[in-house]
Specification:
Chain lengths: 315, 459
């Protein structure tokens, strides 16, 4: 019974994402389904360009929620990620309210009494009005929930990671002057990482860990089909086969899905009907981003095309 | 099912996947959501919640396959079973015939539950009984391959082997054919139990065995390590290097904060009339790690030097400026060899150049002073690794004094224990006066601590 429900729901996730142009493997769909059911963030790891950020966009589009994106970089701190006090506004208000001060403190004879009266007014200048919400706080306060994408978390410092822990496990933040702000509707949180550095165990523990690698040939064909619909089937198969051959080489930067899609667009633009050595040589710079890689791939082109065509015939 | 999941978590820990209680709770919740009937989805769900890196995913995937293939070990038996099945059909008719219509089912009733189960070929029941018995015998506590026998017999006992033996004795007298069949079934059962135990060993014992081996290796004296352990040791050293890298490659920012930078603070707050809302801080200057290592590669110290050089040179992210020198009777620079070649090749080359001589600290220090004294700056940590046994030649401690004066710190790592210092031809006490630190460094653990302390002084 439960299985029936789960597998159909996972399929629903898969088709929902597909409707947004994101072809998800079953692992990805399971991760998305689970993260919604047990309200946990997903940590997505994998090489650049396999669609980690796209996944968040697709989920947002599919669930019809707003996407709030926080791009991480070295030196990102809580003032830029969480909240900031509007210093200028605070200062301006104190200037304007200076005259009122006399009235407030009117009856007080001694310094002590004046201070006591001031205390009664509380921390007016440290109230909600003077808080500038940054992406993380925005995400928590957004009514109806949203998709929070914390992009390239591995680029940020270790301290920032610790800052995220409270948000990720309880969907709340503590602002010393205001108290704890909890999410009205827990946002769907997606973190992405290029594995530039190892993330802390505390952070990993709070997330579902999803690794997106290079897709299988079939899946990649479907991705190309959904992204570049006007490419012919033969060419699609051929080019995806060719890219899979390229990935078997020992290169600095392997072409990933985004490069496949770019290349498909280029081939359509050049009105190629099938792969041949000339056109591959001319457009190889779309796939490979290093001179050394292009040189390494050059002598193999003809064999790879032949292989891709052959597998096409039999596959 | 919960029991099964708990056992799976133990198995996962055995496979080297770190499963904390919180993670196991998450996994439980996930499993409650997806159900347990679809194995592929279950696998995905467990991989998502438990594994936290690509390596862990691979390990856990293997572990999952092994764990949930458990009902299968009886697969290799269908031959035996079908034989039994066939013989059962043939047996069935003569036995009631010999004993008469009414007594046909009678001997069965007198048999113990295990015998009945085996005779009726109820495979699921046997499987369940075996799993229960494995639980009762706490198979998940198995740690060493030598325990296989005792666990097998414990499981068989828990399944009621004693009763079966009695039945067998009784049957041999009354019904030899049935006894024969029961005996064959018992053999098959023994085999299945043995398979179960082996699998249990593969599942649960890995972690313990590995930990134990690493623990022993960490505390084994590096100089007397056996040849076959060298590769394992290298792996261990690499592990240590990774740990040190993780600890020191991302220095904490807070520690670097120094005094208030008044000028920058005023400038930054000009908009508010100089009221310091935003503060700017000076940064404490921190030296980049610079290490000069002098390693004795003579005789017994060679192996330790080998591991030490491997460790120091695997710390690229933390210390990018390392210059290494090797010496026994004279001294050469080996940094480049170590950078370019694999550890094995590099060490072989170094050994062929300077190794295996009798050590002469005095002339090696003279070599260093003559050619490389300029590499030392006030930021440099000099590490000397050696036993300070100079074969009664002039130790030239005066050069060591000059080295110490030119550098930030001078650390001497001695593979010999403190007791031996100063006895025989050991010049350690004379050298020690000029060293900031002298510490024994005979095992991988001591090596790790020594290097960790050296790097920490730059944080």
């Amino acid at each position: 019974m439960a299985e029936q429900k789960a597998s159909t729901s996972i399929e629903a996730v898969e088709s929902g994402l597909a409707a947004q142009g994101y072809i998800a493997s079953r692992q990805i769909a399971t991760a998305v389904y689970l993260s919604q059911q047990i309200e946990k963030p997903i940590l997505v790891e994998g090489p650049a360009g396999v669609g980690k950020t796209e996944l968040a966009k697709a989920i947002a589009a599919w669930s019809g929620k707003k996407m709030i994106r926080l791009q991480c970089y070295e030196g990102l701190d809580e003032a830029k990620a969480l909240y900031e006090w509007k210093y200028a506004k605070q200062l301006l208000y104190t200037q304007i309210l200076k005259d009122k001060l006399g009235e407030v403190l009117g009856g007080a004879q001694t310094l002590h009494a004046a201070l006591a009266q001031l205390h009664d007014f509380g921390d007016v200048f440290f109230s909600k009005e003077f808080v500038e919400p940054r992406p993380l706080l925005q995400a928590l306060e957004h009514p109806g929930g949203c998709v929070l994408l914390i992009d390239e978390i591995d680029k940020s410092d270790a301290e920032f990671e610790s800052l995220l822990l409270e948000i990720l496990s309880d969907f709340q933040v503590t602002i010393p002057e205001l108290g704890t702000v909890s999410a009205i509707t827990p946002p769907t949180v997606i973190l992405t990482s290029n594995s530039e550095r190892d993330l802390g165990d505390a952070l990993k523990r709070r997330c579902l860990h999803l690794h997106i690698g290079f897709p299988e040939q079939r899946l990649e064909e479907r991705i190309v089909e959904s992204r570049v619909p006007n490419i012919s089937q033969t060419l699609r198969r051929q080019m995806v086969g060719f890219i899979h051959e390229i990935r078997s080489l020992d290169l600095k930067k392997l072409p990933s899905v985004s490069e496949t899609i770019d290349w498909a667009r280029v081939l359509v633009l050049l009105q190629a009907s099938e792969l041949d050595t000339e056109i591959v040589k001319d457009t190889l710079n779309v796939l490979l981003k290093y001179e050394a890689d292009i040189e390494a791939a050059h002598p193999q082109i003809t064999t790879f095309i032949a292989k891709a065509t052959r597998s096409n015939v039999f596959g | 099912m919960r029991e099964n999941l708990h056992r799976f978590f133990r198995a996962a820990r055995g496979a080297g996947v770190h499963v904390s209680p919180a993670e196991s709770i998450d996994a439980m919740r996930a499993v409650a959501q997806v159900g347990i009937d679809d194995r592929a989805i279950l696998r995905d769900a467990l991989l998502l919640t438990l594994a936290k890196s690509q390596d862990e995913k691979l390990a856990l995937g293997d572990c999952f396959d092994l764990f949930f293939s458990q009902p299968e070990p009886r697969q290799d038996q269908p031959d035996a079973d079908s034989d039994d099945e066939a013989s059962q059909d043939t047996d069935q008719s003569p036995s009631p015939a010999s004993e008469g219509e009414a007594g046909g089912g009678q001997p069965r009733q007198e048999l113990g539950p295990l015998a009945q189960m085996l005779l009726s070929q109820d495979r699921n029941a046997i499987q369940a009984a075996m799993a229960n018995a494995a639980g009762a015998a706490s198979l998940s506590d198995i740690r060493y391959s030598t325990q296989r026998g005792i666990f097998s017999s414990r499981i068989l006992d828990a399944m009621g082997l004693q009763r079966l033996r009695d039945d067998l004795d009784g049957l041999t007298a009354t019904n030899p054919a049935l006894a024969e069949r029961l005996r064959a079934a018992l053999d098959a059962l023994r085999e299945a139990v043995r398979d179960t135990v082996s699998q249990g060993l593969a599942l649960y014992a890995r972690e313990e065995a590995e930990n134990l081996r690493n623990e022993i290796l960490r505390n084994a004296p590096l100089a007397r390590i056996e040849r076959r352990q060298v590769a394992e040791m290298r792996a261990l050293i690499r592990q240590i290097a990774r740990r040190l890298r993780e600890r020191y490659s991302k220095p904490r920012k807070r520690q670097r904060r120094g005094h208030l930078d008044v000028r920058r603070t005023l400038r930054r707050n000009a908009a508010w009339g100089g009221v310091p809302f935003l503060t700017a801080w000076k940064r404490k200057h921190r030296d980049r790690p610079k290490i000069v290592a002098l390693c004795d590669v003579s005789g017994s110290v060679a192996q330790v030097s080998d591991f030490f050089l491997l460790l120091i040179h695997s710390l690229h992210e933390v210390v990018d400026d390392v210059r290494s020198f090797a010496f026994s009777s004279h001294l050469i620079e080996v940094s480049e060899t170590l950078e370019k070649k694999s550890p094995e090749e590099a060490m072989a080359e170094i050994m062929s150049k300077v190794g295996f001589g009798s050590s002469d600290y005095g002339s090696s220090l003279v070599d260093f002073e003559k050619d490389f004294m300029s590499t030392l700056t006030p930021q440099t940590t000099v590490i000397v690794l050696g036993d300070a046994r100079s074969n009664n030649l002039d130790p030239r401690a005066d050069i060591l004094r000059r080295i110490s004066e030119r550098s930030k710190r001078l650390v001497w790592l001695n593979p010999e224990g403190r007791l031996a210092w100063g006895f025989g031809d050991s010049e350690m006490p004379r050298y020690a006066t000029f060293c900031s630190v002298v510490r024994p460094c005979a095992t991988a653990q001591q090596l790790e601590r020594a290097v960790s302390d050296i790097v920490a002084t730059y944080q």
